[in-house]
Write a structure and sequence with these properties.
The chain is of the alpha+beta class and 188 residues long. The protein contains three helices and twelve strands; from the N terminus they run αββαβββββαβββββ. The strands form four sheets. A six-stranded mixed β-sheet has the order 3-6-7-8-9-10, sandwiched between helices. A two-stranded antiparallel ribbon has the order 1-2. A two-stranded antiparallel sheet has the order 4-5. A hairpin with a 6-residue loop joins β9 and β10. The protein is globular.
Length: 188
């Protein structure tokens, strides 16, 4: 099977889109990977995290927050789309009308029901090797958040903890418990 390129991926995406299919695709080592839709708990966690990030980043003009549809061309020519990502303003003064050609400062993967933790950890570690400052793995099944940095051991956080990212978002704090979708009662 021949190695696929980003141009091949773009052509395939266009063909699928014209046929009424809206698949998310990534390119890894010349292979196109079709990303399955995530379950709605994982999706809601992603939206919640993006909302908290955006509310801090936007008024301070610190950078840009992207969802899972935002693709980045990595230095190894792979095309990746983290579930949530952030790029500091100094590194991306204006968003291109194409894939970003840089590694985000922050990459977040949120475990869906069909995901495997080891695979997500490997993906985050690859982002860090390529230049990301922080990788975050959110596991709704264990209500656990693990923070990865280029050096040092991963930091596991639970509901009682607060997520801080002083390297890229000084002053920002997020209680881990705020990530999880609320349960509404009949009285709400």
């Amino acid at each position: 099977m021949p190695m696929m390129t980003i141009k091949d991926l773009e052509n395939l995406q266009l063909t699928l889109s014209e046929a009424g299919h809206d698949y998310q695709l990534e390119l890894e080592d010349g292979k196109i990977i079709v990303m399955r839709p995530s379950d709605i708990v994982s999706s809601e966690i992603g939206v919640r995290l993006m909302a908290f990030l955006f509310a801090w980043v936007e008024p301070r003009r610190l950078g840009r927050v992207f969802d899972s549809a935002g693709g980045f061309i990595m230095p190894d020519t792979n095309l990746k789309a983290p579930d949530v990502s952030f790029v500091r303003a100094a590194r991306l003064r204006q968003s291109p009308r194409d894939f970003g050609q840089l590694v985000p400062d922050l990459v977040v993967e949120i475990k869906s029901q069909s995901d495997r933790i080891k695979t997500l950890e490997q993906k985050l570690k690859k982002f860090l090797e390529l230049g990301a400052q922080i990788g975050i793995l959110i596991d709704p099944d264990q209500t656990k958040v693990t923070v990865y940095r280029p050096t040092g051991e991963p930091l596991a956080l639970s509901n009682e903890d607060t997520l801080t990212l002083p390297e890229i978002l000084p002053g920002w704090e997020l209680p881990i418990s705020a990530l999880w979708p609320p349960i509404f009662t009949e009285n709400d």
